[in-house]
Design goal:
By secondary structure, the chain is of the alpha/beta class. The protein contains 14 helices and 5 strands. The protein is elongated and about 75 Å long.
Length: 332
């Protein structure tokens, strides 16, 4: 795409000194950027919230909200946290730099600002923002694809969202690190994205599958992993996608892993997946009660299929949730 066809990046410049704003604006307008000006921190934050820029240059020492405060507020919001922020400052001591890093700043410029340095920093951070946007677009497409697959079967409506929610709750109960909780949140949505390669007459077949049809179905974790593999942010999600149909006795698919070979995150999603399948209506049977669902799962644990410790943790999680609901608001 040529520069004339590409969207022109918008740069927010926030400084309480008019001369400083105009100097930075002139340097950047010469390069073809759209400029939005703010004379203090409050107006800068308003721009972030109403018309998010592609990059922000924030003076540190502004009346009211400082550049540090605006940066911290922007980085704390999911919709603006990925916008690059450059703090422009005449301060040079280490403590101020550390304060900028702690509030989430992506870079610093020292006053007086030199044009070549300004343009180099802006170009570099805008390239990073472009890659981030592309990554988010790819993730959005994957999530939409996964949910469209789920929507084909009325019996699985809401299944992905429940798996995502329950998996994260179970991960929290197990004190898993945040990056694995995020992987489970995403994995709950996209774990079956590989079913896009399964013909609908097999995917929605009400009766038993033939051996040939089962082989096709059992390839969907491999296809799903292949679809998601290019996304580096999915590195912890890939094992969930590929291995959530393994069994601890090695009878699962696609790789026949046994015991601890099955990644913990895959076992967590698997445990939640089995429960949700048992506790919701299916074409061939009505939903089981929670008690019956867990009873069935305990029997299957004895066969060596599932992780008994995770089944116990999930049952405890649901019991605690039920106790809180029964107790009502006074229990809070």
């Amino acid at each position: 795409m040529s520069r004339s066809q590409a969207r022109i990046p918008t740069v927010l410049i926030a400084d309480d000194m008019k001369a400083n704003r105009e100097l930075l604006a002139e340097m950047l307008r010469e390069e073809g950027y759209d400029i939005v000006l703010a004379e203090d921190g409050e107006k800068a934050l308003e721009v972030f919230l109403t018309k998010p820029p592609d990059l922000a240059l924030l003076d540190v020492l502004m009346p009211g909200r400082t550049g540090f405060a605006v940066c911290r507020a922007a980085k704390s919001r999911p919709e603006t946290r990925l916008i690059p922020v450059v703090l422009v400052t005449g301060l040079s001591n280490k403590e101020d730099r550390l304060a900028g890093i702690e509030c989430g700043a992506d870079d610093f410029l020292s006053k007086p600002v030199h044009k070549e340095e300004l343009l180099a920093r802006v170009r570099s951070l805008l390239r990073l923002k472009h890659f981030t946007d592309e990554l988010e677009n790819a993730e959005t497409v994957l999530f939409s694809l996964a949910l469209s697959i789920e929507a084909k079967d009325r019996y699985t409506e809401g299944h992905c969202e429940r798996l995502s929610q329950y998996s994260v709750l179970l991960a929290q109960q197990l004190n898993l690190p945040e990056e694995l909780r995020t992987a489970l949140r995403w994995g709950g949505i996209v774990h079956d994205v590989g079913k896009v390669a399964v013909p609908e007459h097999i995917l929605l077949k009400p009766g038993p599958l033939t051996p040939e049809e089962r082989k096709i179905i059992e390839q969907h974790p491999v296809v799903g992993e292949r679809i998601c593999a290019p996304l580096k942010s999915f590195r912890h999600v890939l094992p969930i996608i590929r291995h959530h149909h393994e069994r601890l006795d090695g009878s699962g698919y696609p790789d026949g892993l046994k015991g601890e070979e099955v990644p913990l995150t895959a076992r967590i999603l698997q445990t939640v997946d089995i429960y949700d399948a048992l506790a919701t209506d299916r074409p061939y049977r009505k939903a089981l009660s929670p008690e019956s669902a867990f009873s069935t799962m305990r029997e299957e644990v004895k066969r060596g299929w599932w992780d008994g410790a995770l089944v116990q943790e999930l049952e405890r999680l649901f019991a605690e949730k039920e106790d809180k609901a029964s107790a009502g608001p006074s229990a809070a």
